[in-house]
Amino acid sequence: MPQAFHVRKYFIPKTNPRQEVYKPAPFYFGTLSTQDAADQIAEESSLTKGDVLNVLDRYQRYVIKNLQKGYKVEMMGFGTVYNRFVTEKGISTAADVKATHIRAIVPGFSPSYTILNGARRYSLLGERTLFQKVTVHGTPVEEGGGSESPDEV
After folding, report:
1. What tens digit of pLDDT does each residue of 18-28 get?
2. How far, in whole angstroms, is CA 142 from its chain's centroid?
3. Cα–Cα distance between 124 and 68 in angstroms, integer?
């Protein structure tokens, strides 16, 4: 996957005098909005732009609602959205860790694949992955059953 880049100046912390280094940083040509995504998807499907926009809007609310409930949300082939904690310094013993050490909860994202040293490492997708339908509470759903509405998920 080619990516345009520009050169960015960084300073190495805790060096006196401050030491400058240069690294490549991604260059973006702009940001696509949800409306742009809906327009592109509608052009390639039988759905209207409004239908696609409604689905994308509903999916956004679905992700937020389930993150608040403590679930990760995975879109196969795209990645997983999850809650990540911003904490203060590490604590020396497990018994001393408290919820007050959490400074913020921010969304995290893990793509379906990562690029390591030029080689791609894919997550287990496709035929090798086995799926089992379960309810929100984790109990298995019989085939043909479990017709929950999106509000119950």
Report:
1. 888 988 888 88
2. 29
3. 27
